[in-house]
Amino acid sequence: MTTYARRWRGACLLVVALGLGLAMLLWSAIYAVVAAAVIGALAAAVLALTRRDDGGTRSPADGRVRLAARSATAGAAGVALWAALTLSPPLAALTLVLAVGGSPWTIDHVRRVVRAPRDRTAVPVVAVEVPPSPWDDYDDRALCRLWRLSFWRLGPATSPDHALRVVALRAACLEELERRNAAAVQAWLDSGARASGGPEKFLGATRADGADAA
């Protein structure tokens, strides 16, 4: 998830910067900066009160820099969201759902939930019938088509419950694709993967490379 998390953070920072610029156009630069400073100060107070002890692994100066960076980001994000709500509430809601639903923390949580039944070892092996995988009827291209189609299921009118189900489906698709061909998925991510795209062309390339090597 390191590469994905880095790209996700970069995309979020770009959206926040665009939203902050929108706020300056809708209102004024001074108004947007003051609003971001106020929201950032409130975020700093909350973060300072809820900050956990790191056991001395980080110096006080590093802690202050980290707190300032998070507070500034929170202030800018708050103003950007405010401006987006002013311009188009559905667009703001869709952006927020995509940001939260596609975050590394959400995907990690969904993966843990999906993988949890596999970790149960208390049931005797003799008494267990292994059910067929839900992906047995999907070849690689069908699985990629489902991945791309699920992106368009996240629309402005999407309810939070439906959005979470779609995000869970996308996480399961990505996990199955990684299980089948992790090298292809990694190559796709490294190439600048888009949420609406898919790794089809990399699946064939990596398998061809493997066949040549053999």
What does this structure look like?
This protein has nine helices and no strands. It is mainly alpha-helical and 214 residues long. The chain has two domains: 1-87, no CATH class; 89-117 and 137-214, no CATH class. Helix 1 (2-26) packs across helix 2 and helix 7 (160-180) crosses helix 8. The model is unreliable at 118-131 and 206-214 (pLDDT under 50).
Biggest β-sheet strands, sense, barrel: none
Which percent band covers the strand fraction?
under 5%
- Termini, distance in Å? 29 Å
Q: Give, in order, the helices and strands.
A: HHHHHHHHH
Number of strands: 0
Instruction: Round the mean pLDDT to the nearest integer and report it.
Output: 76
Structural class: mainly alpha
What ranges have pLDDT less than 50 throughout 5 or more consecutive residues?
118-131, 206-214
Tally of separate domains: 2
Shape: elongated
Number of helices: 9
Helix content: over 70%
C-alpha Rg (nearest Å): 21 Å
What would the keywords be for this entry?
single chain; 214 residues; mainly alpha; elongated
Brief characterization of the structure:
This protein is an all-alpha fold and 214 residues long. The protein contains nine helices and no strands. The longest helix is centred in the middle third of the chain and has 28 residues, at 60-87.
Explain the layout of strands and helices.
Blueprint: H1 2-26, H2 29-50, H3 60-87, H4 89-101, H5 104-115, H6 140-152, H7 160-180, H8 182-190, H9 200-213
Helix pairs in contact: 1-2, 1-3, 2-3, 3-4, 5-7, 6-7, 7-8, 8-9
